[in-house]
What we know:
The complex is a heterodimer of chains A (about 450) and B (about 90).
Chain A: E1 2-10, H1 14-25, E2 30-33, H2 59-73, E3 78-80, E4 84-88, E5 93-97, E6 102-112, E7 116-118, E8 131-133, H3 134-144, E9 152-157, H4 159-170, E10 177-180, H5 186-191, H6 194-198, H7 201-216, E11 220-222, E12 225-231, E13 238-243, E14 246-251, E15 254-259, E16 261-263, H8 266-271, E17 275-278, E18 283-286, E19 299-301, H9 311-328, H10 334-361, E20 376-378, E21 383-384, H11 385-393, H12 399-406, H13 419-430, H14 434-437, H15 451-455
Parallel strand pairs in A: 1-2, 1-6, 2-3, 6-19, 8-15, 9-10, 9-15, 10-11
Antiparallel strand pairs in A: 4-5, 5-6, 7-16, 12-13, 13-14, 17-18, 20-21
Helix pairs in contact in A: 1-2, 1-9, 3-4, 4-7, 9-10, 11-12, 11-13
Chain B: E1 3-8, E2 11-16, H1 21-27, E3 34-35, E4 42-43, E5 56-59, E6 62-66, E7 77-79
Parallel strand pairs in B: 1-7
Antiparallel strand pairs in B: 1-2, 3-4, 5-6, 5-7
The structure holds FE2/S2 (inorganic) cluster (FES).
Amino acid sequence: MSVSCDLLVIGAGPAGLAAASTAAKRGVDVTLMDEQVAPGGQIHRAMESRAFKAESVSRADDERGVALVAEFRASGSRYQPGTQAWQMQADGKVYVTDGARARVITARRVIIAAGAIERAVPIPGWTLPGVMTVGAAQIRLKTITYKPPAETWLAGSGPLLWLYAAQVIEAGGRIAGILDTTPGSNRMRALRHIGGALGHVAYLKRGLTLQRCVRAAGVLVVNHVEALEARGEGCVQSVRYCVKGDWREAPAALLLLHQGVIPHTHATRALGAEHHWNVLQRCFVPNLDSWGNTSIESYAAAGDCTGIVGAEASLLQGHIAALEAARALGKLTPAQRDELAAPHFAHLWRHLAARRFLDALFAPRASLLNPADDVVVCRCESVTAKQIRDAVVLGAMGPNQVKAFTRCGMGPCQGRLCGLAAAEILAAARGKSMQETGVFKVRAPLKPLSLSELAALEE
Amino acid sequence: MSNVTVNVEGKAISVPAGESAAGAALAAGLTHTRVSPVTGEPRAPYCMMGVCFECLMVIDGVPSRQACMVPVREGMRIERQTAVEVWK
Lengths: 459, 88
Ligand code: FES
């Protein structure tokens, strides 16, 4: 069975929902598909089924999410939840599956709003059961109000550590401690961007409120953590951490890691769109014009998958990309598009200026990006940092050769998780820049398919 | 939120309707949900959002399902992926 539409939006987070609603309002025939079973993306996950507290630390986000989802539901867009794209073609054919049957959607325009993923920074023992990401634990908190065990440690850097800790405390749970790896020198670097941050004081205020709330609850906060290690037999039993060269160990039932978020570029890379290295955010981002158009005709991208911008700016980018789609589809003249987009651009600049401050403040600790030889980098194929470095000695020049030599990135996740971590190790080993090094090529199918799924396509 | 009864490794457990199969497995007390086909080590869900593929489990007899992306259904059978199941 095949579907055709004017505009296909991929992803139901803030950018995707805003794009679908705005385009539908301009008379565009929109289909929105999303991997998840309910709209909202990660930030507004389970928005329609969650119970809200009026005085919550995430209240502003929640209110925005409820409005966004309601507007989308009323927009007249077609909605296909639980659906993943596995091949995207320049001719506008997008092959998708709902896990049982593969189908093709033919679209005149596509907006990719794939969102962000957490930056994987491998540490010794991170493959042990009981080691997860902070994002993973937050998803469980949002979907089923799951409270972690008392001996839960949070380790790493970034606003999500504090937000999640505050949410657990708010839900009546406990956190044993936060092991903060943010380098002290980040503060000085961030101050260079304070001008932009002052244009959007809400970001600063929010961060400080969360930190205060967590400290007031008596959570142990260890600053300047230089190195981490998960230990245990069969599952995590303790966390070791190093401060000023001094190693300490604490019992742990759950160790939650977080090193910020990076754009989920699997889709735009599979499409063959051009990307470049963003120095401040330490990640690859698609090359886009100011309307979000990628280097591939009729494909645009919006939101965190284009560079980390946050939920509010993602929404603005969604509006902007949708107005451009409406123009391309003949529903708006260029002048109408420009006029409608002008206020969105004005807000967007303010958000982006403030973002630079956060990027600098939470830049990952450089030493963690170059783990010891015996650390597993590719979890699927259990490839260590040493194997990657050995591949360089054997003459591997780029990530794709490392993959061929070691199988790194060749498992079921196709390098989604380890791609950037492997590229960092490779670049360091070769003394090359990340721009020069690049990341794994992504090939279709974007997700493993069964033969029975594929068979449905021919019907 | 209403509850759903699923079967995790032969044991019935009631979980909230919004839960994923991976979440149900963790709620049932499974420390690991699969064995690495490369090293034989125990592994468990890591990202819960469809990125890492550590949550591959056998669901209703179908191997290699991404359990964190599969919502629970009444009577769903959720099992550890132990053998070296090949991608089918
Ligand atoms: S836990 Fe990462 S993909 Fe399911």
